[in-house]
Prior knowledge:
Chains A, B: Its EC number is 4.2.1.96. Chains A, B: One of its GO terms (molecular function) is 4-alpha-hydroxytetrahydrobiopterin dehydratase activity. Chains A, B: Belongs to the pterin-4-alpha-carbinolamine dehydratase family. The structure is a homodimer. The first copy, chain A, is an alpha+beta fold. A four-stranded antiparallel beta sheet of chain A has the order 1-2-4-3, with helices on one face. Chain A has a single domain, classed as 2-Layer Sandwich (Gyrase A, domain 2), CATH 3.30.1360.20. Helix content of chain A is about 45%, strand content about 20%. The longest helix of chain A has 18 residues, at about 40-55.
Amino acid sequence: MVDRLDDAARARALADLPEWRLVDEPEGISRRFIFGDFSAAFAFMARVALLAEKADHHPDWSNVYNRVDILLTTHDAGGLSQRDIDMARAIDALLAA
Amino acid sequence: MVDRLDDAARARALADLPEWRLVDEPEGISRRFIFGDFSAAFAFMARVALLAEKADHHPDWSNVYNRVDILLTTHDAGGLSQRDIDMARAIDALLAA
């Protein structure tokens, strides 16, 4: 079991993730990614899928052609947890690599 | 350019796709797929991605853990076209194989 972040912890975490925004219902963080085409978008999704499976923490996500929208939330915690923050950082690191 | 199906052609096509339902805004057809886990769901998505890239006709789709929701529509036609019907059949064939 993992705890939902309190307000202070959430604020600290989000300060380090400027590309992600806080969303409600469910409480989580989301980011939109735009690629050159579907092939590039799906290649990114494949890498995120591997991260997600390894962490056993899976995104709510959608794709339309070159666009990927990712929402991270922790259903068991009823909101945003450290697992979401860690996954967001790992996803961002894919793009930096 | 591909034409939007007229009412008669749409009705004929949907009669052969009982698992797909007609949706509005955008006009298209959608189907929900449920798998045993994320790994199985994403393996299916990888196969659909290959079909989509080959046909140059890409789904609007989302995934949450073991669930994949696919919407097929033809933006250029302003609605449902034969390309969507062909893609739905190809996707269904993946599950039958």
